[in-house]
Specification:
The complex is a heterodimer of chains A (261) and B (235). In chain A, helix 1 runs antiparallel to helix 2 and helix 2 packs antiparallel against helix 3. By secondary structure, chain A is α+β, with helices and mostly antiparallel strands. Chain A is built from nine helices and nine strands. Classes of the chains: A alpha+beta (261), B mainly alpha (235). At the A-B interface, helix 1 and helix 3 of A face helix 1, helix 6 and helix 9 of B.
């Protein structure tokens, strides 16, 4: 087999490889590689002029433009505040039930998952500004004001009102404007606060000394959900379909078991 | 089930097409021969060692001119339609700093530009020419835009001036093509002496065409890229 034959056989193989990729970046890289092999083929057929042009335009310029084009569309950006067990940092990684769900959802869409940690109040704002696709991090379905698109609930939850504290601290009287990390810090230092915590956050907080705080469970049925950017109603449909499928296949139960028990 | 069948059918069709293409490749033609008049007299007639340049900028200059016109129309179209449709985000945001891209741009920008210029200047002696050299330069500029931000690069180019240069070059090329008429020669014939084959100053008007086409493609590539970047609001 000569080098020419190998190159000629590589071309359809690379083309099929690129076409069959779900992940867009891999597909674009495959196309770039296709152009490079094509350029090598031209060279072997004594057409160096065409080979140079093919390398400059096909392998470099077009690949570059495609990469820039998918830079934004190739990812699923999730904004959230940390909620232990649901979505939280663990060492250098982000782990939790919601992370697992989002990871599977992103893979199904052929996108790369990007998780950004922001204060709880900024989740909605980031979605409205179009900086993110999905909002997560212990979002309670029943208290949403419909400013964003709301997914179906995937896990029952509860709400707790935590107030009190010994050390006066005007800064921490405001609710939800901070990272959950700061809330934990405030409780650790027994600073005064007054805020509503969802079940996951409350469980994490209850590991600390809550004896100086008044805790009150808010009556009602609550469940966790995701928020979806208003510009992307079709993403909400896809997300709901994915959540339904997870629940029906029993995979959701397995995940909940793994992270919540 | 139905989509699988369509998939298999598509793979079979594409494979059959590939085989058909492979069968049509003339392996003997690739080796060349001296019975071809262009191969026999091309270098001495045009003065270009690179016969490809000799053919598309001398024997087939007419084809190349129209090709260039098509390129100009494409650039014009992109600019016209993207400017007509106002962008929702008028401010071009500075691209996020990435050390990898920055360092790559610092290291590669010089060599890329040098290769681009080399391809243009030596287009009549070695593989290359105005089209590929200009495209290489445009790619280098895109790399720079990705590393430093599009606005930083755009500030170096005065938009109105490069637009005038672009169209000026097109006029100049057409002028060069019709100039022989004023010297009682057929249009598109080479006015300049072909020089000593293999020297840098040879090939008649071919190096001039290469240079003009190179600058035109370089500017055109940047205009297209910058129009897209500005329309999108970010790189």
């Amino acid at each position: 087999m000569t080098a020419r034959t190998v190159l000629l056989l590589l071309l359809p193989a690379l083309a099929i490889f690129s076409l069959s990729q779900r992940r867009r970046l891999t597909a674009v890289m495959g196309m770039g590689l296709f152009s490079l092999v094509l350029a090598a083929t031209y060279l072997f057929y004594h057409a160096p002029d065409v080979a140079i042009t093919e390398t400059a335009i096909g392998a470099a310029l077009v690949t570059f433009i495609y990469v820039l084009a998918i830079r934004k569309t190739g990812r699923l950006v999730v904004v959230c505040d940390e909620a232990p067990r649901l979505i939280a940092r663990d060492g250098g990684e982000i782990v939790g039930l919601e992370q697992e769900i989002m990871h599977g959802f992103a893979r199904e869409l052929g996108l790369d998952l990007v998780v950004r940690i922001v204060p709880r109040d900024d989740v909605g704002a980031a979605l409205n500004r179009g900086e993110a696709d999905v909002g997560a991090g212990g979002i309670i379905r029943e208290v949403q004001k419909k400013a964003e698109l709301i997914s179906m609930g995937f896990l029952p939850s509860a709400l707790y009102r935590v107030s009190g504290g010994i050390v006066k601290d005007a800064k921490h009287l405001r609710e939800n404007e901070e990272y959950f990390e700061d809330t934990l810090e405030a409780i650790r230092e027994q600073r005064s606060l007054s805020m509503t915590l969802d079940l996951a956050r409350f469980l994490a907080a209850s590991r600390l000394n809550l004896s100086n705080y008044a805790v009150e469970r808010i009556e009602g049925e609550f469940s966790y959900c995701f928020l979806v950017s208003q510009d992307q109603p079709e993403l909400l449909i896809q997300l709901n379909a994915y959540l339904t499928r997870l629940t029906e296949s029993g995979e959701m139960e397995r995940l909940i078991e793994r992270y919540m028990s | 089930m139905k989509s699988t069948a369509i998939g298999i059918l598509a793979i079979l069709l594409v494979s059959a097409f590939c085989v058909l293409l492979l069968l049509t490749v003339d392996y003997h033609g690739a080796r060349g021969g001296t019975d071809n008049p262009y191969l026999a007299a091309g270098a001495s007639e045009t003065g270009a060692v690179n016969l490809v340049s000799g053919i598309y900028l001398n024997y087939r200059l007419y084809d190349s001119l129209f090709e260039l016109l098509i390129f100009s129309m494409a650039v014009l179209g992109v600019r016209f339609y993207l400017n007509a449709e106002k962008s929702t985000k008028p401010n071009v945001a500075r691209v996020a700093e990435s050390p990898v891209v920055r360092i790559a741009a610092d290291l590669l920008f010089g060599p890329i530009m040098l290769i681009g210029v080399y391809l243009i200047v030596f287009g009549h002696l070695s593989p290359g020419g105005g089209f590929s050299g200009g495209a290489v330069g445009g790619t280098g500029l895109l790399l720079c835009a990705a590393a430093l931000g599009a606005e930083v690069v755009a500030r170096r180019f005065h938009e109105q001036i490069i637009e005038q240069i672009e169209w000026g070059i097109l006029l100049l090329i057409i002028l060069f093509a019709v100039a022989p008429i004023f010297f009682d020669r057929l249009p598109l014939t080479d006015l300049l002496p072909s020089g000593r084959v293999g020297k840098l100053l040879s090939g008649g008007t071919i190096p001039i065409y290469n240079g003009l086409i190179g600058i035109k493609v370089f500017i055109g590539t940047w205009v297209v890229i910058y129009s897209f970047i500005r329309h999108r609001g970010e790189i």
